[in-house]
Every structure is written in C-alpha cells, then in structure tokens.
Amino acid sequence: MNQPVSASALDTKAVDVEIRNVDLSYGTNHVLKGINLHIKPGEFFAFLGPSGCGKTTLLRLIAGFNRADSGEVLVGGQDVSHLPPWKRDVGMVFQSYALWPHMTVRRNVAFGLEERKVPKAEIERRVTSALELVGLAHLADRRPSQLSGGQQQRVAVARTIAIEPKVLLLDEPLSNLDAKMRVQVRRELRDLQQRLGLTTIFVTHDQEEANTICDRIAVMNDGAVQQVGSPMELYEKPANLFVASFLGTANIVPGRVIEEGGQRVFEIDGGLRLPIPADAKVPQGAKLVFRPQHASLGATGARDVSLPGTVLHSEFLGSTVRYGVRLGSTEVSIDVPFQSGEAIHKPGAAVEVGLSLDAAVWLAS
Ligand SMILES: Nc1ncnc2c1ncn2[C@@H]1O[C@H](COP(=O)(O)OP(=O)(O)OP(=O)(O)O)[C@@H](O)[C@H]1O
C-alpha cells in the first residue's frame, strides 16, 4: 500500500461519528452500557479492550448490523440509527476478510459496486483506484487463494474503500497475520488512512496495535467506556486501575491514607509510609500506581522518596534490567537502565527503592 498514488481518485470526505447513550442487550446479557463517544472527522480511532467487552458489537452497531435497545448513532450529523447498513455510507472490513474464493481480486473489489448498480465505467475507475491505493493493481487477476494473508487483507480494504464510504470500520483486521506482517500492514493501514483522510474506527484487543496507529482510543471494559484519550494521555494519566493496567505495565500497590503531623501519608500494606503530594487526588480506597521506569534502585537518579525493598528476581532486557522487588507486602516491577559492566542485584539483596512522586498516581478501581 505504499505506492505514491493520489487518494483524490476516490471520493472520501471526512465526517464525524457520534454515539449517544447507547444500550444493547442480547437477552439478559447487557453488552453495551450507556456508551457515549464522539469520533472526529478524519480521526483514526480505536475501540480497545479485552475479549468480550463489546467492541465488535459497538462496531457492528455503527455499521448497522446490530440495533441498539436505546440511543442513537449519528454519521456526519445524520441520525442513521434506523437505516440499514447499505444506506449508512460506512464500510466494514471483517476480521475474516470474507472474500469470494472463486472470484479474482478485481471481481471481489467490483462486487459491492455491481450490487449497488454503479455504472460499469465508474466501477472500472473505482476498482482500479482502490487496487492502486493498496498496491495490488499487479495482482488484480489472481484469486484470494493465490495471495498472502497480508495481500488478502489489502483486497478486503480495497473492496471497502471502493464503495467510497464516509467511515471505514476495521474489525481486528490484523489478527490473521503473523507478528511481522502485522507490524508492516498496520503501518500501511495508517498510511492509507492518512492519504484518504477517512474517519476510521479500528477494533483491537492489542494495546500496542492501538497505540502505534491510532490518534485516540476508547478503552472499554465490560460494555462500558472506561476512558477516551490519545495513547500518551491514557498511559500517563489513566483514569482508573483498569486503564492503568491494560495499557503497559503498572505497579499497583495497596495501602491506606493516614494523617501524620497534619500531612496525608500513604501507608503501603506491610507498613512502609510515603508522603502524599498536597495536590494529589486520592479517591476513597485508592491504590498507589506507578510505572516501572518511575522508580529506581540505589543511587541511580534522584527521587522524591526512598523506601527499603528486597530484590526477588531480575530480567536482563538489553538496555534495561527489570527487577521484581518486594515493597512492603507487594511485588513491584522496576526498570533500571543497564550500564555496561554494572553488576545486577541478586535475589535477596536489600535495595533502596527511589520513587518519583510526580509520576505516581492514586487510583480506585
Ligand atoms: N449475536 C450474539 N448473540 C448473543 N450474544 C452475543 C452475540 N454477539 C456477541 N455476544 C456476546 O456479547 C458480548 C460482547 O461480544 P463482542 O463480540 O462485542 O466482544 P468483543 O469485545 O468484540 O470480543 P472479541 O475481542 O473476543 O471479539 C460477549 O459476551 C458475547 O458473548
């Protein structure tokens, strides 16, 4: 998909997508719970969450394959909640690609346009443009079985963009590819999306995939949106423990807030204490959360507090060493930059754990 082909051959105008107060149940299974989202025109947006949290159900709702029990879906300001899929100007790429095995690549891409009774010359023009955009023009006469997984995925994308949707919906489009292809194809998808400027919604349970290609992410759990933000916002300012632990490694340390000499202090389970910064918000029942790189061992860098810990194990990762350290009664992960020739602490070693309080947060579940 990396040919320098102009996207202007296909008519794709960016629109926004709004999901308002959507609820959906399958029988007694309440799958989507009061979803509100606003996806901006031209945005590459991800629904990210664990298996079964409702991502695909929400995507299919936007496509028109599912109906909400209540709430609305707006595309470009128009309420499409009661329109069938083919009248919504949205195109969906399915996880399985759903290509016709007996048709050539060209016929697969043309099929949706023929169904829509698009004039022949127009079909020819759009199919050629879509195949050029995904870099498959030279394979137009092959059948899907004669293509690699990545190429089949591109056919599925070409077939969808040929119908000139206003919104592109991608349901785990990389899940059938091996790890190396996934990295390549996700870059191609991002590149294509930017050239087309097409509002795109991407479903994945893989945080790295969402982080690397999406502008913003809605983190979902158990049918509800937990937080919406850029990958960096979600990583640095998670709204709750679920988001903190779903995006990257987070140390989650239980304890309680106590008063000591007129100052709030956090007493970690196991008895260690650290001051809580005056401006820190600490919800009821909150736990201390920090990333492995926001702590240090021994004299490696000045930190705000120093607490005694015991090394449990270590992993040499090349540029860093990841230590498992007991802090109070909790095990935490601490990443220490590796300096050539430096000794690695052995299990059982007593260490001073330095903590940067401005990078720590207190979060409730
Ligand atoms: N057609 C259906 N009938 C009944 N229950 C369904 C149906 N489709 C999905 N579900 C249920 O709805 C919930 C959400 O499913 P959904 O496929 O939206 O989750 P998901 O987050 O996309 O998961 P995955 O990453 O595994 O695809 C699950 O409990 C699932 O079993």
Automatic annotation (TrEMBL):
Keywords: ATP-binding, Nucleotide-binding, Transport. GO terms for molecular function: ABC-type transporter activity; ATP binding; ATP hydrolysis activity. This is Iron(III) transport system ATP-binding protein. Its main location: membrane. It is found in: Cell inner membrane. Residues 17-247 form the ABC transporter domain. Transmembrane segments: none annotated. It is a peripheral membrane protein. InterPro entries: AAA+_ATPase (IPR003593), ABC_SmlMolc_Importer (IPR050093), ABC_transporter-like_ATP-bd (IPR003439), ABC_transporter-like_CS (IPR017871), Mo/tungstate-bd_C_term_dom (IPR008995), P-loop_NTPase (IPR027417), Transp-assoc_OB_typ2 (IPR013611).
